[in-house]
Design brief:
It is built from 20 helices and 26 strands. It is α/β, with parallel strands linked by helices. The chain folds into three domains: 55 residues, Urease, subunit C, domain 1, CATH 2.30.40; 86 residues, Diaminopimelate Epimerase, Chain A, domain 1 (Roll); 326 residues, TIM Barrel (Alpha-Beta Barrel).
Length: 553
């Protein structure tokens, strides 16, 4: 009888356990907003795991697993069958000029022009299209792409447009050709001098070429875009970025007014792109933000200042330790004095803001690494950045790791510059240019960007340049200085989780993990396995932000 009672009690207990288990399962079952299944999901988590599916609720990843696990546990109002396609975290451009790119879409596009004659033709077409604009603007020319690899002169522009000011910016933004009308409006004369800039003069006459800080004298005379034009510029830029899989980016060099406009557009729903802002180090910007601190929402992160160290290699404005190989006695130049760099570093060190400095030449990189080191003192988590880190003397490389300095690089700069960089630097110094792998090794991670519109906005070009070190035509065979190529995993991390980390955002985005924003992109083929020559041309099928579709091919 005792055994019977014991068996009966055990049966009741087992029944209760099963009932509790069922009740528990039912309680734990959740309704999701979206389930994506039947995919090859690159989570980009710490162990670089792959999955098949994930559920989304309230704009965030709810769970990640197999298709069977996710679909059996969650019921969603919307499901997406990925049909085996590759899925990645939303791509993040760690250094771009998003707002400037949007504005440039309203200017003459001079990228890819093969002569100054073609530049003039495009400018003439732009004028015919917009005959009433007060200024004619354009950007994207590169004399290194022309048969005659010399800076142009303003003579033809003066003849064709004697009464309309013109400014046409070089592809890197560090040189421009302007006409006489623009020079007159800016009050520039052959004797005009400044720190960190150059007004080119030949035979006592201005050629119209302005380099670095000299450009500001002219651009300051261009009327500000209206608020409606600014809004449209941001929307146009966003549309193009979503189409190539970008869901986040860093905008390098903004003022408070533009950050405020982005914030307002985020709140109204007109702008969904997540933006990390590098502020211009103007007195109004410094006064406001150093007093009020970092400004952070889910879509806007204002927490750094963009400092301008030197110019660009292509326009010979990058500051070098030894003279340019193709211009005797010319070293380039800094855009501010050493004292100014030290003062801003000391100021920002007392705040929570990052110092992100544009540094191309080995002299500039050395100076800024030393200044950072003096202020930071050793290992830290300030995540101060050197933007570009393009030419680094071997003696300075270890300073990145010693002071926890983040090298923020743009792989397509290497494949755009490789045709002529050796002319500027010489054979030996070229070996220490675009050293992405060596830079990665200093801290174990590296954020990747494009610097668009200097380069193309497509992050797949960044990936291809980082991994294959080749251009669009897969030149050179075998790649350019392949000892500094990145692996596919490193490149993908660089444009997702490491880009997020460079902005202190790795806990909210950059990987497909529970609790993070449901930002992801689906490609037609797998970036991690496709042949290198096919990487650049892969099509984006879908882009999602907060679990909502923002682009579909």
């Amino acid at each position: 009888m005792k055994n019977t009672l014991r068996s009966f009690a055990a049966a009741i207990l087992l029944g209760s356990t099963l009932l509790g288990s069922c009740t528990n399962t039912k309680t734990q079952s959740e309704t999701a907003d979206l389930i994506v299944y039947n995919g090859t999901v690159y989570t980009v988590n710490d162990t670089f795991d792959k999955a098949e599916a994930f559920a989304v609720k309230d704009g965030k990843i709810l769970a990640v697993g197999t298709s069977e696990e996710i679909r059996s546990k969650y019921k969603a109002t919307e499901e997406l069958d990925a049909q085996g396609k590759a899925i990645y975290p939303g791509f993040n451009d760690a250094h771009s000029h998003f707002y400037r790119y949007g504005l440039s879409l309203q200017s003459a596009d001079l990228v890819g022009t093969e002569s100054f004659k073609e530049v003039v033709q495009k400018v003439t077409e732009q004028r015919e299209k917009y005959p009433d604009t007060e200024w004619i603007t354009g950007r994207g020319w590169d004399q290194n792409d022309w048969a005659v690899k010399e800076f142009p002169t303003k003579d033809t522009l003066d003849v064709l447009f004697p009464n309309t000011p013109i400014i046409l910016t070089r592809v890197d933004g560090h040189a421009a050709i302007v006409n006489q009308k623009a020079l007159d409006l800016a009050g520039i004369k052959p004797t005009t001098k400044m720190v960190g800039g150059l007004v080119e003069v030949k035979n006592g006459k201005m050629t119209g070429i302005l380099v670095d800080n000299a450009i500001d004298l002219v651009s300051a005379k261009i009327p500000e875009a209206t608020e409606e034009e600014q809004r449209q510029a941001l929307k146009n830029a966003q549309e193009n970025c979503f189409a190539v899989g970008l869901t986040s980016l860093a905008d390098a060099g903004l003022d408070k007014s533009t950050a405020d406009l982005m914030d307002a557009m985020h709140k109204s729903g007109d702008l969904q792109m997540r933006v990390y802002v590098m502020l211009n180090p103007t007195k109004p910007n410094l006064d406001y933000y150093l007093k009020n601190g970092i400004y952070k929402t889910d879509r806007l992160n204002v927490r750094s200042f963009k400092i301008y160290g030197d110019g660009a290699l292509g326009s010979r404005g990058a500051a070098l330790i030894k003279p340019y190989h193709d211009k005797a006695g010319h070293y380039g130049f800094l855009l501010s004095t050493e004292a100014e760099f030290r003062n801003i570093a000391a100021t920002l060190a007392k705040s929570d803001f990052q110092m992100n400095t544009h540094a191309i030449g080995d002299s500039t990189n050395r100076l800024l690494l030393d200044i950072y080191g003096e202020v930071l003192g050793g290992k830290n988590d300030k995540r101060w950045r050197i933007e570009h880190s393009q030419i680094v003397n071997p003696e300075d490389m270890a300073k990145y790791g010693k002071y926890s300095i983040v090298p923020s690089v743009q792989p397509t700069h290497a494949t755009s510059d490789m045709y002529w960089a050796g002319d500027r630097l010489g054979k030996e110094r070229l070996k220490h240019a675009y050293p992405f792998k060596e830079l990665l090794q200093q801290n174990g991670w590296i954020p990747l960007g494009s610097d668009f519109p200097v380069e193309h906005i497509n992050p797949l070009y960044t990936f291809h340049a980082a991994v294959a070190r080749q251009d669009a035509k897969n030149y050179p065979s075998g790649g350019f200085q392949m000892e500094n190529a990145l692996t596919r995993e490193e490149a993908l991390r660089g444009m997702t989780i490491w880009a997020a980390k460079a902005a202190f955002e790795e806990n909210e985005k950059g990987s497909i993990e529970t609790g993070k924003f449901a930002d992801f992109v689906i490609l037609e083929d797998d970036l991690m396995t496709v042949a290198p020559e096919k990487m650049r041309n892969l099509q984006v099928l879908y882009t999602y932000v907060d679990g909502k579709q923002v682009y579909k091919k």
